Amino acid sequence: WEREASTAYTTQEWGQEMRMNFASWGGLPVYSSFSRRSHIASTSLQYFPRHHIWRGWDIGIHAVVWVQPNNGRIFIYGSRQIVGAFGPRETRYREHEIECSGLEHFISRIKELSRVMFPDAMGWKDVCDPSAWNETIRREGAPIRAFFNQGLHPIPAVTNDPFLRISLVEDWLKQMEEGAAALTIDPSATVLIDGFAGGYAREREGAGAKPAKSAHAHTQECISYVLSRIGSPKSSSAFPRLEEQMI
Fold first, then answer.
1. Taking 60 as the threshold, does the pLDDT of residue 16 lie above it?
2. Dihedral angle at the C-alpha atoms of 144, 146, 148, 150, nearest 10 degrees?
3. Would you give the DSSP letter of residue 196?
4. Dihedral through CA 11, CA 7, CA 75, CA 84, nearest 10?
5. What is this structure's pTM?
6. Band (13; pLDDT cuts 50, 70, 90)
7. How far apart, in whole angstroms, are the C-alpha atoms of residue 31 and residue 197?
8. pLDDT digits (tens, 9 = 90+) for 172-216
9. Could you give phi then psi for residue 155, rounded to 5 degrees?
10. Sign of CA dihedral 132, 102, 90, 115
11. What SS3 class is residue 64?
12. Residue 29 CB: number of other CB atoms within 10 A?
């Protein structure tokens, strides 16, 4: 009974709800359902040509991820973010970083890289951090202007509530489709994989439920922005077949 009933909960949730275990979640991975064996593709993922690629954008430590839904599954191909997020001593992620002079330059570089990586894509669906529509504290204007200047018109993530978006990503991690995990990551996407595996962790203070601000948080936020627009795997109406999502 416990084995079946606990599938709807994370390990920490089950411990609190059913075993009266209120130990802190601090320092634990945000996504307890992630499995290297289940969620990382054994070979490089091939994208579906003549269909849209979704891009999720985070602002500040500028970051982007490339995602494609297809027939009830989510394929995550990789990410990029600006140089320096992981500090000068971290060299593992150099190929996933971009040297740029600002947000508009970063967007320009990503547009160019997207065309190289996905030459036969029909187009792009861009989902952005909702804060991009807010004017900066220094009154420099809203960051969304940088996207407009580059010819992009992203839509905001459905919610800025991290707990709702985390719950949605967990739903996808748990979802199975024809005997395989519904969410699959390209093996070359080391920044994303390391984030799922524990780089994106919960705060060590208090109850530890909130995600800690870390270098891995930016690309992980990008994924949750995109999935907030794609919807839940539990709702067929929220996830039409890819062919029905064309703009």
1. no
2. -150
3. I
4. -10
5. 0.82
6. low
7. 8
8. 999 998 888 999 999 999 999 999 999 999 886 655 578 888 899
9. -105, 150
10. positive
11. strand
12. 17
Sole residue written with tokens 């009933």: 5
Is-contact 53 67, C-beta < 8 A? yes
Assigned token pair, 145 = 């202007």
3-state secondary structure of 23: coil
Q: Tell me: the pLDDT tens digits for 36-77?
A: 999 999 999 999 999 999 999 999 999 999 999 998 999 999
CA–CA separation, 79 and 117 (whole Å): 12
Q: Where are the alpha helices (DSSP H) in the chain?
A: 2-5, 11-18, 36-39, 103-117, 144-149, 162-174, 190-194, 217-230
Residue 132 DSSP symbol: G
Beta carbons within 8 Å of 109's beta carbon, 6+ residues apart: 80, 98, 100
